[in-house]
C-alpha cells in the first residue's frame, strides 16, 4: 500500500482517517475482485450476485426498490435484469397498481442460482476470515457496524 508523503507522520495515538479511507477503498476493490474471480464458475458478473441474493422467492419487488436496496440507479438494475432475464433467472411483471412500474420476480432457476452464489460467498468468507473463531466473530460484528454506518450515510446523502 502506498502512503502519503506527509512531512510529519501522525502520532501513534492519532487516528489517520485519510489512511482509513484509502484502506477502505482499496479493500472494497480487492474484495470485489476476489468475489468476481470466485463467481466465474457460476457465470455471474460482479453485482449480479448481490442482486440475485436480494430477491426473495415468491415476492415481487419493484425495480426502484431493488435499486435502493443495491445502492445503484434503476437504470443499472434494468441492465442487470435484461441479462438475468435472458438466462431465465428473473421475470418482469407489470405492477397491477401502477402501470408505470415494473416488478421483478425470481424464477425457480434463479432460486437454484442463489444456492450456487451462497456457496461461493460462504467459501470466500471462509478464506478471508481469521482462523480464530473469536477473532472472526469480532471482525463480523465490526463489518456489520461499518456496513450499517455506510448505508445510513448513503440514505442521508440521497
TrEMBL record:
SMART domains named among the record's database cross-references: HTH_MARR (SM00347)
Q: Name one process (GO BP) from the record.
A: response to stress
Query: What highest taxon heads this organism's lineage?
Result: Bacteria
Listed InterPro entries: HTH_MarR-typ, MarR/SlyA-like, WH-like_DNA-bd_sf, WH_DNA-bd_sf
Q: Which residues belong to any copy of the HTH marR-type domain?
A: 17-148
Q: What GO molecular function annotation could you give as one example from this UniProt entry?
A: DNA-binding transcription factor activity
Pfam families of this UniProt entry?
A: MarR
| PROSITE patterns in UniProt | HTH_MARR_2
Q: Which PANTHER family does this chain map to?
A: TRANSCRIPTIONAL REGULATOR, MARR FAMILY, TRANSCRIPTIONAL REGULATORY PROTEIN-RELATED
What protein name is recorded for this chain?
A: HTH marR-type domain-containing protein
Q: Which organism is it from?
A: Aureimonas glaciei
